[in-house]
Amino acid sequence: MKFAAHLLTATLLMATPALAQNPMTDAMDAEQKAMETVPQGRLAALLKTPEAVASDAVKVSYTRDWLAAQPAGAGGDQFQCLAEALYFEARGESVKGQFAVAEVILNRADSPDFPSSVCGVINQGTGRKYACQFTYTCDGRAETISEPRAYARVAKVASIMLAGAPRTLVDGATYYHTTHVNPSWSRRLNKTASIGVHQFYVSPTRTASN
């Protein structure tokens, strides 16, 4: 909220002449314009309700038994995008590994270096074969979910993460790859974690939002 207040103060100073005519209306317009410049992921974090903050303190147990006891995953477009990405990118991983991949996707959505929504992050570069960020979106093959039980598990992970579960596994990582490959770009990044068959990395110039 302090960040939002600073934005409001700055925009009010810029709008001083107009405020003399209609202070309340112009102040509200200035605040709205300032808030529109903040990435959606970052804005959501700044304006969290007490309930959302409390949800961050919920302890997640990265076990199949714990996940099985959670309610079925559900949600809108962002949920669907995240659940699908986890299915194609990490369905064979452990529960911990699936949560780790979800953290990377959400970290990207909160970073000014990437699109500001989950769907935007996942579909970045889609349409250009092998130029996308998530290979399954541009490998030329149809995204067919043929393992409903695996999808049900990752859908729960997607719901839990979007509900505000803590991100403590990958130390702000915004990149990852499997241990089966050794991409050249990974040598320019800082490794933060190794979980299952995935290695996780963050840019050396990591931003405060991560």
From TrEMBL:
Membrane-spanning ranges: none
Classification via InterPro entries: Cell_wall_hydrolase_SleB, SleB_dom1
N-terminal signal peptide: none
UniProt-recorded Gene Ontology molecular function terms: hydrolase activity
Domain Cell wall hydrolase SleB: 92-201
Protein name per UniProt: Cell wall hydrolase SleB domain-containing protein
